[in-house]
């Protein structure tokens, strides 16, 4: 329909108005001149590394200071927010005197810097949030904090020392969040508050991790807390049953991990509202406590629980995401009640004494499962083969059990979604599996295939865990050169296949070379035959390759010399023949990588590749039994290459 003249005029006027408003917004300078001057004075007074800084280094005379990175203003152009964390700021409190002049400041963060000395003196009547965490501050905590409006205070990860009493913070009666965690030389006397807790009636979040506490403070009985962290202290004895009543039932996060607690005082009732319960790394014994219906995160690992898992351990829970009871002494079978937690993403039952078979519902109904860890138990039978169609398994570890049968199940290949597209780590070692590796569709394991150039994405496993500090893979146990080694530092894109110590037969398929982002491949202690596939030369990121104690034949393919990241190689005790290829990485290995192959020659072996070398036949003494588990620090640990850049806490 044609546009009338009036409509045309109106449209032009509207566009002109929008352009005028847009230009006005850009022309308007919100920042007051005196505020810009104060900020530039602050920059000049602070000592910071300009090569690391991403905020201070950009502050200058041009532009609206309210739009500078790390700065926020109110409607009048007053600076009310300074976010100067991770700016590599150093020096003592005398260098921060310019903060005092910013009288309208409401939120100040200097976290993750290198500030030393005592807490800078701040007398801002409107300051409500102060974050000085992760610096090198020391001395008494409370002398310089006279901020009655303060609601959030974080002094974690500093060097505060001596004995401090929470009562010394009594002027901060508006606090809602207090974090004093990880001041290793700080001894906190919290008992003095038992009769004066009303001063902190607004406090909702309290973190006193690593504050040398010896008991759970009595004053918490009177609190209205919703978040409590008392981890990494020296708390002994029983967990008092009044703990579960903290906050009048509103407590949703409780962390008592890394203490010396031995039991839960009876009778007790864990409220359903408690969503995150962390009791790991204590000395708790007896029977596992029943999970509350509202639990989304529960960690009971690294304790001394030994009774079977209660049949009502998990009721109809539709929000549980993480559950770990690893590293206890729990006996009996896996109860089917666990399957009712269908939204669980991480299930870790490893390192216990669990027996019987894996309940089929564990894989059939738990459609959200991303990590299943049953390592080091006494579980027998076969792996259930009916994974859901939307399966997104990332880590499958069923190693060191008594599982057996064909892998995969040949009556219909065991599939997870579109044939394991998200699989990152699979460990089925030390079982009784058999079968032909040609039956496994390695070419569909997409996560183990490099999509582009060599890269590390600097991310952790993508799991929808509410806790911001959550990283699942705290450690990993791998078999390298016949020895089980426990690693506590691995990077987030780590990928591995460990089928060692089973009864697999046949040849290694060429398709395994499609896994170009695989880092560890261990097929040792099986009955594999035929040549080493040349396609292994395409596995650009391979850092550890163990094919020892099999019946492999022919020569070692020269393509292996292309593996520039290879740090561990074990081809010992096979029937390999001919010259050992040379290359940058291959020249770094010792003779034990090739021992037990009587017809191999060349460096690093003593046998030379010539007709008159006087062939010295070396005895073949391989044992078909898998070596016993050990935890040795091996000099050739390849993870050291990435130790600095990647750390899973």
Overview of the structural elements:
The chain has 649 residues and is mainly beta. It has a domain at 476-642: Ribonuclease Inhibitor (Leucine-rich repeat, LRR (right-handed beta-alpha superhelix)), CATH 3.80.10.10. It has three helices and 40 strands. Strand 30 and strand 31 form a beta hairpin. The longest helix has 23 residues, at 5-27.
Write a brief caption for the model:
The chain has 649 residues and is mainly β.
Features:
single chain, 649 residues, mainly beta, Leucine-rich repeat, LRR (right-handed beta-alpha superhelix), 20-stranded mixed beta sheet, 6-stranded parallel beta sheet, 40 strands, 6% helix, 21% strand, globular, disordered C terminus
Q: Would you tell me the structural class of the helices and strands?
A: mainly beta
Number of strands: 40
Q: Quick check: average pLDDT?
A: 83
Oligomeric description of these chains: single chain
Task: Identify the overall geometry.
Answer: globular
SSE map:
Elements: H1 5-27, H2 33-45, E1 47-48, E2 71-73, E3 79-83, E4 89-91, E5 107-109, E6 114-117, E7 129-131, E8 136-137, E9 152-154, E10 161-165, E11 177-179, E12 185-189, E13 205-207, E14 227-229, E15 236-239, E16 253-255, E17 260-264, E18 276-278, E19 285-286, E20 297-299, E21 304-305, E22 322-324, E23 346-348, H3 361-364, E24 371-373, E25 380-381, E26 395-397, E27 402-406, E28 425-427, E29 432-436, E30 476-480, E31 483-487, E32 496-498, E33 503-507, E34 520-522, E35 527-530, E36 544-546, E37 551-552, E38 568-570, E39 577-579, E40 599-601
